[in-house]
Design goal:
The radius of gyration is 24 Å and the shape is globular. By secondary structure, it is mostly beta strands. Helix content is about 0%, strand content about 55%. The chain has strands at about 5-10, 15, 25-30, 35-40, 50-55, 65-70, 85-90, 100-110, 115-120, 125-130, 140-145, 145-150. Strand 9 and strand 10 (about 125-130) form a beta hairpin.
């Protein structure tokens, strides 16, 4: 006697694979006199994603703001545990009031490439930074037709 069995599975038709951020992205800020890493985008955030944060001058006639963009495998806030991907010094007008606003936007695209833009809110002057070399898995959409037949 011959035993025959048949299994058909069509339960999975489409799977959308969405890539995620491979690391934590942030900036080093000085808080109460200490350098602290502040996370903008958390690891495993679905791509694409975008986050903005405003920084303000601390005192009258401050001549610059230093932005240090970081990457880390952990959410550790100690600057010794991060890679500094880019450092940008933003020059301010010679006469600026305390509270002068600089807006920083982080954007990670579908390919996992980090873009940062730094906007001087008062003057409208903008600097764009693209940081390449961030690894990414390809975001793709594919169809699975799963039909299995087994005959013994």
């Amino acid at each position: 006697m011959k035993k025959t069995s048949s299994i058909e599975t069509n339960s999975i038709k489409k799977i959308k694979v969405t890539d995620v951020c491979p690391a934590y992205y942030g900036a080093i800020e000085i808080i109460n006199g200490n350098e602290i890493v502040v996370i903008f985008i958390k690891k495993n955030t679905p791509l694409p994603c975008s986050v903005s944060k405003s920084y303000f001058t601390e005192y009258e006639n401050q001549d610059s703001i230093n932005i240090r963009i970081t990457e880390s495998a952990t959410s550790e806030d100690n600057p010794d545990f991060v890679n500094i991907l880019q450092e940008k010094v933003i020059q301010l007008p010679p006469i600026s009031n305390a509270g002068y606003e600089i807006k920083v936007t982080f954007n990670v695209d579908n390919n996992g490439v980090l873009h940062a833009s730094i906007l001087n809110v008062e003057s409208g002057e903008k600097s764009d930074i693209t940081i390449a070399g961030i690894e990414s898995n390809l975001t793709d959409q594919f169809t699975v037709n799963d039909e299995v037949q087994e005959v013994e």
